[in-house]
Every structure is written in structure tokens, then in C-alpha cells.
Amino acid sequence: MVRALNVDIGSKSRDSMPSPTPTTASTVPPSETKNHVDSPSSAIPLSRYVLFFGLSILGCGFDLWSKAAVFAWLGMPGQNRYFWFLEPYVGFQTSLNEGALFGLGQGYTPVFAVFSVIAAIGILYWLFVAKAAHDWLLTTALGLITGGIFGNLYDRLGIWGEAAVRDFILFRYNDEYVWPNFNVADSLLVVGAGLMLWHSFFVSQNSATFTESDSEAN
């Protein structure tokens, strides 16, 4: 009888012990999973290098090709030659810019050339040393910006024959409302800056909210 009592007590003790919970992906805290995948100390994927340098090289190449083609077609500024897509609002007209984006800072071409080199070095450091390239949207934005930087830097250094940026895209409402001529490189800079603003206001805030909610849950 004593033996039967001991067996009964032992079986009840085993039944009352909680069974171990198997470890699955759902039991791992989201913050730990996210940090494991996107840790800044981890190696940057090869796809990020391809994305960044692909956008930079293609963007710069298309900018230089378009400027050479349009200037060969319409000639240098001063010939008063136009090509209209929607006359008289959208078209091509060649012009030279010795300043920055959209004609700002005229006469400071060497200064802007130096700033361009510094900006390019800063972008490379931020992406591949500080590991910002883990973020695909930032990589895309900075790839476009770098393509625009080198497209205009080529012109500012005078490699094409004159130390001035070649512009040819024309937008205007009438003779009183004419937007400064620009080029493909300027467009790349604007689109890249827009993506960075989007990332700053939406993606970064969402990431911060996600991290904060994880901390409160833990």
C-alpha cells in the first residue's frame, strides 16, 4: 500500500510540472530578431553595393550622354535654338551654369567642385563605413545623389571643354515665369533628396515607434 501511494504521488508531481515551451520564431522578441538581421555591425549585403554603384554609374552616364547629345544637336547657348515638347512651356534650350543647382551661386564653380568631392566622400563613408547601406531606401537615395554629383562635377572640372555645367531642360509659363534650365544630374539630386526626406519623416519615425513599443513590451 505504501508503494502504491508513492507511485500515485510521483505521477501527480510529474503531471503538475509545466511542459517546456518549444522555441519558435514567434517566441523570439521582435526587437531581438530585427537586431539580428539588421545589426549595423553585420556585413553589408553585396546587393547594396550593386544597387548603389549601379544607380551612380548609370545616372552619371545617362546625364553625360544626354548633355553631349543635346548640345551637339542644338549647339552652344546664344544661338536661340529650341526644341519644344509642349510649346511654349516644356522643351530643350542649351545654357551654361557656373553656379550650383538651378543657377544658384553663379561664379563659384571651383568652390562647388570641392564641395561635390567632399559630399561624395561623406556619402561613401556613411554608407559603407557607418553601415547605413543596410537600409535599401537610403542606399537608393544616395546612389541617385552620387550619380548627380559626379555628372555635374565632370562639367565643373571643365573636362568637356569649359568649366561650367551644361543645362538644357526648360520649363516656363511665359517670359515672366521661367524656371532656370537644369539637366538630368539636377533631377537625380532632387529625386534623391526627396527620397531622403521621405525616409526621415516616415521610415525613421516608424522604426523609432517600433523600437519603443518593443521596449515597453519587454
TrEMBL record:
Signal peptide per UniProt: none
UniProt-listed InterPro entries: Peptidase_A8 (IPR001872)
Record function comment: This protein specifically catalyzes the removal of signal peptides from prolipoproteins.
Entry superkingdom: Bacteria
Catalytic class of the enzyme: hydrolase
Biological process (GO), any one: proteolysis
GO terms for MF: aspartic-type endopeptidase activity
Record keyword Membrane present: yes
Compositional bias segments (type: Low complexity): 16-32
HAMAP family from the UniProt entry: LspA
Keywords: Aspartyl protease, Cell membrane, Hydrolase, Membrane, Protease, Transmembrane, Transmembrane helix
UniProt-recorded name of the protein: Lipoprotein signal peptidase
Region (Disordered): 1-41
Pathway linked to the protein: Protein modification; lipoprotein biosynthesis (signal peptide cleavage)
Family per similarity comment: Belongs to the peptidase A8 family.
Lineage, highest ranks first: Bacteria, Pseudomonadati, Planctomycetota, Planctomycetia, Pirellulales
Organism: Blastopirellula marina
Membrane topology: Multi-pass membrane protein
The EC number(s) this enzyme carries: 3.4.23.36
GO CC list: plasma membrane
